[in-house]
Amino acid sequence: MSTCAECKAFFAIPENADDFELSKGDCVREEKDQKGKYWLSKPVMGDMVADKCSYFMKKVAN
Amino acid sequence: MPITERTKRLKARCRWKHTSAGEFVDETVRTGIERARLITESHKNTVGEPRVIRRARGLANILNNITIIIQEDELVVGDHIEHPEAIPLYPELSYFVTLDLVQSKYCPDEVKEEAMEICNYWEPYTLQRKGEAYYTEDELERAYQFSTVEGPAFVTGFNSIVPPYETVLEDGLQKRIELIQAKLDDALAQLREFPWDASKNLPLLEKINNWRAMIITDEAVIAWARRHARLARIIAENFETDQNRKKELMEISDICNRMPAEPAKGLRDAMQSKWFVFLVAHGLERYASGYAQLEDKLLYPYYKTSVIEKSFQPMTRDEAQELVECERLKVSEHGSCKDRGHREAFPGSNDLFILTLGGIKTDGSDACNDMTDIILDAALSIRTTEPSIAFRWHPKGRMETKKRVFDCIAAGLGYPSIKHEDVNYSQLLKWGATPEQARDWLLVLCMSPGVAGRRATQKCRTEGGGSLFVAKCFEIALYNGFDPTFSNTQQGPETGNAEDFDTFEKLWEAFAKQIQYGVSLAVKGKDIARTIEQHYLQIPFVSSIDDGCVETGKDASGLVELPNPWHNIILNTTASDSLVAMKKLIYDDKKYTMKELITALQANWQGYEDMRRDFLNVTKWGNDDPYADEITVKFYDMLADEFAKVTMYSGVAPMPLGQSVGHYITVGSKIGATPNGRLHGEAADDGGCSPYMGADKKGPTAVLKSVSKINHRKFKGMLLNQRLSAEQMRSEKGFDIWLDYMDTWYDLDLDHVQFNVASTKELMAAQEEPEKYPDLIVRVAGFSARFVDLSRYAQDTIIARTEQSFGVAQ
Predict the structure, then answer these.
(1) CB neighbour list of residue A2: distance below 8 Å, 6 or more residues apart
(2) Tens digits of per-residue pLDDT, B203-213?
(3) d(Cα B566, Cα B442) in Å, to the nearest integer?
(4) CB A18 to CB B223 under 8 A?
């Protein structure tokens, strides 16, 4: 089972942020269409199951 | 040409959201679901809490969870929807509007079912269903026809607002929270005092809820802005490879961390903070049209810091212009979610985005500054239809700025529209504005002045706005209040049939009664909607940034510090020219009987061509003709008198405001054949006191002379469209000729004028080969549009306007 926290698009919210919650992160996706490139960010919980997410890409360990 | 490569790219890929004939021109536009989903989720989770707190938590839930966006190249970031191609839904407003959008092609299949569930969930809670409860079925039938009056605010959901940007730029939201918290602490302390005093203490309960709601929303707005800060940093650190762009993104991140939480310090701060406030006030908390702000005055202190002193966010003048170009493109991309009737009413336009420049300061000196010039330069260089600009004209205005105003007009942008400084300033004094407040006047939407500043700005369209379609009221006055040509229903009181009016005075009396019924029906709808708004559709964020709301603990939707009452009168000249023709041929000359006229009108003049020509040839408004002008001036006086009989929510009578929006096309076509010689289905007059298309044959000065016979100070505004010779305007002497014209216009004490400068040849060529004229802009009404985006019908109404030449009577 994959979770959002394991995804390359997951960026944990820093502790000093207004919307900090344990395991909460920003799901950031780069998109491109005929009019150009843009980035979308949506809050997600790191422990959410990501198996059905078509954007899931496993984070590569450093 | 856009001033930089960046703005060239941004314009080339701009995600335009304008509509034509009620449909979005760009086929990729679609409805978003997140705002609707999140406000619904919150509504379900907050049952039992005070209503204003539920509204605040609804907004907070949206801001905390909605997908945010940053696009490539952007300098001003943020949106009010989850995807750059989307428009939001407001299911809490109008059931009909939401249903229409959900069932339309704009709602993607994958969310249609959920959207329908949301729409149905909200139905009993909507402004619409609550408002309908106070109407009879007959009244609703009349009001929903959109033919004598605009649909009530509770069914269209159409709204407008003037956010007090000044408080946010000067204070920052953190300070606003401190101010509100202090009020809250004082109130709670007072509740603990004894002996108990109910008269003092009980009113505090509602205020406490309002203050708490304000804090919830301000905190949520700060957190939402900082999500943008995080995103910009993440893009810079993880996605972007270009070093310059990385640097820009880090600066954007810094700005969004501080804005709008803190006071703005530089021009980039101010622009971003203003944009965030715009998004929340106009697109997230509730839908509201408009882009009302005194932008040059608002931004000048930050321009001075960044461009002149270079002490914070240093930049060149060109960089400042680039920033304004970016802002104009953001506005062009901002998708609003209007009802179909209002989408049709603004052909070629996205929404009524209008900012105001120029004027006089409180010390009597010219208010124009370098920021005024930059905004005008950016409008000319980026060449977008939106936001439109209104310019406060007065004799002291500096010449280099007036030249820029001229350059925009001569280039064919259709804006700035020009408003008379003193007429508009004086008007606000009537409603209790101090001279200082009145000097800060701006246009609330297309035409009406209201105050700008830290308090007392207009917060809802139920105060001012809405439309009465005068020509339809006139038409039903001929048929005992019945509408035989569009709705086939009784649209007004029974005031007799035209054949019964053996004197002109009887006709006049019936018409005045229909006007009174229409005004009352329309204002009743606004007042009912407003009463509901303050109980169910509070706007705590907007309240939090208004000094008056914070001081009094009242919600902005209900508080009236300064009334700003108006209601639009639309399709006026069709009615007044008809009255003139009837007076002449039926009552004075007795060439035709009323029965003959009604028979011809019912036949749409078919088979009565000679008769039609006679009616068409009767002298018309706009030619300085005493006969036509005397009747027309009385007609306007009658309208003002009928409005003066009504008392509205804010305790005063609404003033009539003459304009047309695009209703002259859509509603105009709902009016049967009229005695001015017009055929059923043809457009009506294009606005305010403008002469009927092609009827002004004696040159621009004759138009001004006619129009000046109306006392413009009796009206909240009075639109005058003029189409000027492109050849003359673009000639070497164009500016001087136009300045002379403007001097005359000012001296005649007229409220407004706006210009189309495009030759018939050019317009017709654009009809033939639209792909060659992507940037040909025309003035439709209180807004401009790209000519090629208009329907052929609308295009023809622009071409039909008289192209006036100076010094030569045509």
Answers:
(1) A49, A50, A51, A56, A58
(2) 999 999 999 99
(3) 15
(4) yes
Parse chain B into domains and list their residue ranges.
464-723
pLDDT of residue B231: 98
User: CB within 8 A of B313, min separation 6: which ones?
Assistant: B265, B266, B267, B268, B269, B305, B306
Mutate to test the interface with B, among A38, A42, A60 (most CBs of B within 10 A): A38
User: pLDDT tens track of chain A, all 62 residues?
Assistant: 899 999 999 999 999 999 999 999 999 999 999 999 999 999 999 999 999 999 999 998 65
Instruction: Tell me which long-range contacts B524-528 makes (C-beta under 8 A, separation of at least 24).
Output: B525/B131, B525/B143, B525/B149, B525/B152, B525/B153, B525/B154, B525/B466, B526/B152, B526/B153, B526/B461, B526/B462, B526/B463, B526/B465, B526/B466, B526/B567, B526/B648, B526/B649, B527/B462, B527/B648, B527/B649, B528/B131, B528/B134, B528/B152, B528/B154
Contact A40 B67 (CB under 8 A): yes
Is A41 in contact with B68 (CB distance < 8 Å)? yes
Q: Do B176 and B138 contact (CB within 8 A), yes or no?
A: no
Give me the residue spans of the domains in chain A: 4-45
B544/B210 Cα distance (integer angstroms):
9
Q: Which amino acid belongs to residue B262?
A: E
- Chain-chain contact of B69 with A11 (C-beta, under 8 angstroms): no
Q: Does A28 touch chain B (CB under 8 A)?
A: yes
CB pairs under 8 A between A and B: 68
Name the burial class of residue B588, with classes exposed (0-12), middle (13-18) and buried (19+) by CB atoms within 10 angstroms of its CB: exposed
pLDDT value, residue B810: 38
pLDDT of residue A62: 57
- Residue B514 C-alpha, separation from nearest chain A C-alpha, in angstroms: 51
The pLDDT score that the predictor gives to residue B784 is 87
In this prediction, residue B22 carries a pLDDT of 87
Cross-chain residue pair B64–A43, CB shorter than 8 Å:
yes
Q: Decide if A40 and B219 are in contact by the 8 Å CB cutoff.
A: no
Q: Which of B409, B294, B417 is nearest to B359 (CA)?
A: B294
Q: Pick the closest to residue B2 from B327, B308, B405 (CA basis).
A: B327
Which of chain B's residues have a Cβ under 8 Å away from the Cβ of A28? 231, 234-235, 238
Q: How much is the pLDDT for A61?
A: 67
The gap from C-alpha B729 to its chain's centroid, in whole angstroms, comes to 28
In the predicted model, residues of chain B with pLDDT beneath 70 are: 807-810
Give the C-alpha separation, B386 to B415, whole Å: 10
Nearest to A37 among B72, B222, B231 (CB): B72
Q: What is the pLDDT of residue B809?
A: 41
Cross-chain residue pair B234–A42, CB shorter than 8 Å: no
Average pLDDT score, chain B: 96
What angle is formed at CA B485 by the lines to CA B483 and CA B486, rounded to 5 degrees?
80
A6 to chain B, any CB pair closer than 8 A? The answer is no
From the CA of B68, how many Å to the nearest CA of chain A? 5
CB B437, CB B453: distance < 8 Å: yes
Tokens standing for residue A56 = 């899931």
CA distance B62 to B42: 9
Q: Please report residues of B whose CB lies closer than 8 A to that of A21.
A: none
User: Helix B626-644 vs helix B504-536: angle between axes, to the nearest 10 degrees?
Assistant: 40
